[in-house]
Design goal:
- By secondary structure, the protein is an alpha/beta fold.
- The chain folds into two domains: 304 residues, Response regulator (Rossmann fold); 152 residues, Glucose Oxidase, domain 1.
- Helix content is 34%, strand content 12%.
- It has 20 helices and 14 strands.
- The strands form four sheets. Strands 12-11-10-9-13-14 form a six-stranded mixed sheet. A four-stranded parallel sheet has the order 2-1-3-4, with helices on both faces. Strands 5-6 form a two-stranded antiparallel ribbon.
- A hairpin with a 4-residue loop joins strand 13 and strand 14.
- Helix 8 packs across helix 11.
- The longest helix is centred in the middle third of the chain and has 20 residues.
- The two termini are 36 Å apart.
- The relative contact order is 0.11.
């Protein structure tokens, strides 16, 4: 592989000019105490930081950035840190998914507009990972990702508790009268006891695993706890490696190939990862021109067992997963299915990275011969209720509900739903199917994580803990239950889900991949003729842009004008 020469570095179009223009850019950069030799042919590595006190998962990223910088300096590079909008899952409304595409634009334009030769992405909280990868892919410089790492295990009294998962469980216990408010308040600090993102196999942990499985991060990146010194050592190694990637011209497009995406889908099944990964990986692939759709998810995950015993599907947490050997063990145990020749950011193939992998706890990471659950992949359902597809996570569902016929109980929106499920006189039975409309990309807007509808209060008191639930929304990766999500097209743009009425019969058959509304075509056509859209309307700003250009869930919910990429051509001078 030919080495990129100093004079060919992209940054030299800024720093290497022997003119008044070069004088200006070097002079102003020197006001931060930069010595002159930093501008003389050293690869400039941008450190894209999503640190924010409003994003608790990423609150330690300033320290991680310092370790990346140290690695860049050691390898002869010039590190420059820059901020982008941060997406804090716990605080932002209406949902961080609403802003994922905006952040990807922030990342893309920040990278392209500045004198950068390579990039290290610092991501942790759910949407920060896909948004940074999507933006970086649209520029296609040498790029790798450092994840922030999960929190330490939660401990409440005699229980090991997991972020998100136990927040949901404790909330249901409160509604059922099984837990007091004083207990809930005490559990808050017991659940979140260190820096880092959710330590369950929620979306944050899933996307960190996707980074490693895609080959877009260094081996072991996914699971090292945020406060473990090895997280910072990996960050320093990433800084060194970023400089080498620039010299090798190892661009993101050389790593994120169809083979890499297939590896990630297989890994997601083996870890029983979040359904959110479906939308994010499809969106990322479309930025690179890689053909990836729901059929790939179903084809690759259909007979893949779940090997990882982690909440919400299992018993352990990410800290235990790392001590057991982490994602390399999972990848090694499904290596016969993987594309082992896929190139990764450390310059080695996936197969080379899986040499001498050992598991230290077979109860945390099971073998394919004795899996934790028989089905770990994402099942893609189709039928007249979701012509373009819907998804369900079998490992999180109740086996007895995987084939079910029931009466639809329809909620037009989340406000109505929250009111009715807490009404103990509500006409609902355990065999009914809860249907939530108008919660997709356009309907909410932003496709929030409201798909795991709460069990009606009167049923909770009867001991019911799961029901079939269907929506065009998403579900938190920390959640659980027999929940059908991402129904496309969504109800707010005229999809069949918006035509369902309370009392209709719905058939779910996960094994048969079928989701059917037992209403005649003629009746559906009559309802469609009377249907009126309820999509929120905005006259200005980002919300208007979003509603006018967002794709449906089966296409990754990206903006239509962001598919493909614009590359890393140096823009015209600013003076």
């Amino acid at each position: 592989m030919a080495e990129v020469k100093d004079e060919d570095l992209r940054s030299q179009h800024w720093f290497g000019k022997r003119s008044s223009m070069g004088f200006g850019v070097r002079s102003w950069m020197k006001n931060q105490g930069r010595p002159g030799d930093m501008f003389e042919g050293k690869p400039v590595i941008g450190i894209c930081n999503t640190w924010s006190e409003l994003t608790p998962c990423n609150g330690h990223f300033r320290r991680i950035a310092e370790y990346v910088k140290q690695g860049v300096y050691e390898a002869g590079g010039f590190p420059l840190e820059f901020p982008v909008m941060s997406l804090g899952e716990t605080l932002m409304r209406p949902t961080t998914m609403f802003y994922r595409n905006l952040v990807s634009m922030d990342v893309e334009e920040s990278i392209r507009a500045n004198p950068l030769d390579g990039v290290v992405l610092l991501a942790g909280c759910d949407k920060t990972t896909p948004s940074l990868l999507m933006g970086a892919a649209s520029v296609d410089l040498p790029t790798l990702t450092v994840s922030g790492g999960p929190m330490l295990n939660g401990h409440f009294r005699d229980m090991t508790i997991g972020s998100g998962t136990h927040a949901i469980k404790f909330g249901e216990m409160m509604r059922a009268g099984e837990m007091e408010m004083e207990d809930l308040v005490e559990a808050e600090s017991c659940m979140s006891r260190s820096q880092g993102h959710c330590m369950t196999m929620g979306t944050a942990s899933t996307m960190a695993c996707m980074v490693e499985a895609l080959g877009a991060g260094l081996p072991t990146n996914a699971a090292i706890p945020a406060v473990d010194s090895r997280r910072y050592a990996l960050a320093q190694e990433a800084g060194r490696r970023a400089v080498a990637m620039v010299r090798e011209d190892l661009r993101l497009s050389k790593v994120l190939t169809k083979d890499a995406f297939e590896n990630a889908i297989l890994a997601n099944g083996a870890i029983s990862g979040s359904t959110n990964a479906v939308i994010h990986l499809i969106a990322l692939a479309r930025r690179l021109g890689v053909e990836l759709d729901l059929n790939d998810w179903d084809r690759l995950g259909k007979d893949l067992p779940c090997l990882v015993n982690i909440m919400p599907a299992g018993d352990y947490l990410m800290e235990d997963f790392y001590y057991a050997g982490g994602l390399p063990v999972v990848l090694d145990r499904i290596r016969d299915r993987l594309n082992l020749d896929a190139l990764t950011v450390n310059g080695k193939t996936m197969g080379e990275n899986l040499t001498d992998v050992k598991c230290w706890n077979d109860d945390v990471i099971r073998t394919p011969d004795a899996p934790f659950k028989p089905s770990g992949g994402i099942a893609v359902l189709r039928g007249n209720l979701a012509p373009n597809g819907a998804v369900v996570k079998p490992a999180a569902a109740s086996p007895e509900l995987m084939k079910h016929r029931g009466r639809a109980i329809v909620f037009e929106n989340t406000d109505i739903m929250r009111q009715q499920v807490n009404d103990e006189s509500f006409d609902v039975n355990a065999d009914d199917i809860l249907v939530l409309q108008n919660s997709g990309p356009c309907g909410y807007p932003g496709m929030p994580e409201v798909g795991n509808l709460p069990i009606p209060k009167k049923l909770l008191k009867q001991g019911i803990r799961d029901m079939v639930r269907i929506s065009d929304a998403r579900m938190s990766g920390t959640a659980f239950g027999t929940v059908v999500l991402h129904a496309a097209p969504e109800s707010a743009v005229g999809g069949p889900l918006g035509l369902v009425q309370t009392g209709d019969m719905i058939e779910l058959d996960v094994e048969g991949r079928r989701l059917h509304l037992d209403v005649s075509d003629e009746e559906l056509e009559r309802r469609r003729s009377e249907w009126t859209p309820t999509t929120p309307r905005y006259d200005r700003g980002y919300a208007r842009l979003y509603l006018e250009h967002v794709n449906q869930a089966d296409c990754g919910a990206d903006f239509d004008f962001l598919e493909g990429n614009s590359g890393s051509a140096v823009p015209r001078p600013n003076h």
